[in-house]
Amino acid sequence: MNLFWLAPLGSCLALSFVIYLIFGVILPKDPGTDKMREIARYVSEGAYAYLKRQYSIVGIFFAAVFCLLLWMAHQGYLVIFVPFAFLSGGFFSGLSGFIGMTIATKASNRTTSAARTSLNSALRVAFSAGSVMGFTVVGLGLLDLVIWYGILDWYYSTHPIAVGMDKISAITSTMLCFGMGASSQALFARVGGGIFTKAADVGADLVGKIEAGIPEDDPRNPAVIADNVGDNVGDVAGMGADLYESYVGSIVATSALGVAAGLGLAGVIVPMSMAGLGVVASIIGTFFVNTKEDASQGTLLAALRRGVLVSAGIILVASFFLVKWTLGSHNLGFYWSIIFGLLAGIIIGIVTEYYTSSGFKPTKQIAESALTGPATVIISGIAVGMLSTLVPVIVVGIAILASFYVSGGAVNFNSGLYGIAISAVGMLSTLGITLATDAYGPIADNAGGNAQMSNQPPEVRARTDALDALGNTTAATGKGFAIGSAALTALALIAAYKDQVLLLGKDLKLDLMDPKILVGLFIGGMLPYLFCSLTMQAVGRAAGKIVVEVRRQFKEIKGLFEGTAKADYVRCVGIATSAAQKEMILPSLLAVLAPIIVGMLIGLEAEVGLLVGALVSGFVLAVMMANSGGAWDNAKKYIEEGNLGGKGSLPHKAAVVGDTVGDPFKDTAGPSLNILIKLMSMVSIVFASFILKNTLMK
């Protein structure tokens, strides 16, 4: 049964739901007082200024790469569609981030205003705005894929196909190259946005909280608006672009592996239709997210989790019939692969919550270590992050093995690889609502800042603080989900890369004792550490500039510290923007050039080693950094709730130092690794033909 129509239907439903949320739910809400609207306008203008500058720089990169890909197509290394698909992938990825960020900036003051009425009202506004990001990503991602599938299907129906290939093989091998544009845009968004947000955050905390002793989000702090801008450009637009490319990459890789496994068109229909079903399931799940007044953190978290679990339950049932009707009853092993992917995503989220939420032992222990100073906070936070890698690695390992063997991998290796890939699609099938719970976090954070700066009554700030604390946990959980999905997607892309090279006439002999592979493994294992070094140093340099500027304003603007004069917010936003744009170039180029250079100098086997080494070390390092950073953040908030001395105490100042170290861990370097391991695979696929013909070591 051909259920391909579920993919375009899912795209239409997702985008229609986005329109409904924007114009039917969010914008009609009360934007609040004049002061609330003024603060939101500052944040919005800063975010637009940042994105305008980023897109102008990224546009130059895309123009250069487009010309390169066009030349490669002219020389016969690529199909002519690839350069244009590269542009469309980057465009839709950037557009999804832009739409999500725009609505996030418009929702923050509306969330604050809703908090004047009730906690549930505020939750619904913030979650609806987060849902715009989630459903924009899946809607535009599916739209891009459906359009290109239609173009290629028409083209290969009327034009000659390469010898040894059929139409569906030609379509999937071409589409496999399409993810590079989305991956490139995602890396720029993540790295640039991450540098911006953490430079502003660190600068604001070091001078405001530690040196000046003023509260978080205090309007006297010149960096406070830049901090709020950063939440939107980094954690909303950046995360959206990150998961957009995971979403698209998993679908195209699975489709290609399905054809390689001998499943033909049916192997393509399943991941595309699964994505369409996921849209329906996610939309239904959003209506289960609600709470009551005076809800605890556990209750609030349960409200968001309820929506995700409802969506997962629908997929659990619907995917059985999808696999049965499309692949036949004899291939129901692929259904279990989907289930393993879903379960892996849920378990990783739960584990992340355990290690990062202040309701559990690890984060409380970090908070208690603040009693003896910042050094012990740093030590305990790193230790917790390292320990937190154990379960995710085991879970992903079990998911890979189980998906491989239940899919018949013991009999047909390619079938097993398809099973692993379809498990990644299963994990990402509920992306609409999963990303909504993540994007909700920075919106709630901005709402709390708006409440503080607009001098709202204590009960309003209490409600926004409750939503903000929940957002810290959901953001950490979202990062765990993004990391887990990145690992499975990257593995599928590496397998697809091997098949792509085989289609080019080269059968890779992958012997672990091959010195070329060993060298590739070592280089690949090192690259995530080099990448993190570059991004963290960038945050340090940018934060240093913010610190100098905030100190200058406190010193030179008379009456600022007393609250009788206004801070120059624009200046801090400009400094963070300039620093982020400058500092993001080198790490981004590293991700693009590394696989090309290794392949050209050492050979395709070394390139496979590079990809595997980067996947293994990058996955573990990303989990460690994300969880350490999340735990440090929530340990600080635990103390701010009145524990261990509360705000302004010595333990609080020690915890702020830990949070400051954790900021680039969890919001810059760690999340960017997700994209690094996927982008290198995408670059390898696109340049495979060129490297095969021009490598120095045949």
Short summary:
By secondary structure, the protein is mainly α. It has helices at residues 6-26, 34-74, 81-115, 119-158, 167-175, 179-212, 224-260, 265-286, 297-327, 333-356, 361-369, 374-387, 390-406, 413-428, 431-453, 458-503, 515-556, 569-583, 585-602, 604-640, 650-686, 688-694. α2 (34-74) packs parallel to α18 (569-583), α10 (333-356) crosses α14 and α12 packs parallel to α21.
| Number of distinct beta strands | 0
Global structural class? mainly alpha
Uncertain segments of ≥5 residues (pLDDT<50)? none
Number of helices: 22
How far the N terminus sits from the C terminus, by CA atoms, comes to 44 Å
- Note the overall shape: globular
> Could you say how many structural domains there are in total?
1
The oligomeric state is single chain
Helix content: over 70%
Estimate the strand proportion: under 5%
Mean pLDDT: 87
Q: What is the element string, with H for helices and E for strands?
A: HHHHHHHHHHHHHHHHHHHHHH
Rounded to the nearest angstrom, the radius of gyration is 24 Å
| Major sheet attributes | none
